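Supplementary Text 2. Reproducibility record for the structural model of the 256-residue chain.

All settings were left at their defaults, and a single model was retained for analysis rather than an ensemble. We include the record here because the model underlies the residue-level annotations in Supplementary Table 4.
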Amino acid sequence: MNARSFLKDQLVRLEQRLKAFIEGSTTRFMASEMDSQEIAAQLRQILQENHQVLEDGRLLAPNYFLLAASPLYADKLRKEQRLLKELEDELERLAREAGLTFAAPPVIKIVEDEEIPYHQISISGYFSQENTATHGISEQEATNSLEIPQNAFLIVNGVHIFPLDKAIINIGRHPDNHLVLDDPRVSRQHAQLRAVRGQYMLFDLGSAGGTMVNNQRVRQAILSSGDVISLAGIPLVYGQDSYPIGKTQKLTLTSH
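Retained model, structure tokens:
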């Protein structure tokens, strides 16, 4: 078994054990049921897809996680600080057992997203050198962490430049999206871009045709300039320039 397969197997075990831990914790702490399967699956995927290989061979995992939920659900989750702290500790323990390391102890912060239905969550993860577990993060700092990347844009179908200057950009076939791709291969709500600490993260919203970044199918991915995205076969290129590109305006593209 090669190293990649071994890590994948270890993280599958991590997901199962994390799910069991959350189920036990919610029985003790939470009046409403937390979606243990979804939280465990999203955390496992972040660790699997976004870890970095250091020069000494160690595997560095993201250690700062934003758990986005509807305002009402986010308010309920914020009241469960003891549960969140135990979840952070358990995530660190299980990830280290799986062979991963962290720059600082993992931190999970709750943020509000009005686009997410009640009782659903979306988790993003990235790297922070700060020991956030020691000094904590205020609500204002959590809000500031949603900083929008400067001069970001998408090139759609190799022709159209679509500026990105919003915290959330929705992409799909439905006319309510910011970027409308009127193609039968594209789902009505196909993907979403979310700004997190000066980076855009791309989320697949359960699309039928799938979302790919650099020829790898993903559920979520941190984007870097030059990344090639495919939404059910529709090509987009993510970029950031040194000068302003413009403001996000609704764009509808029809397949021929």
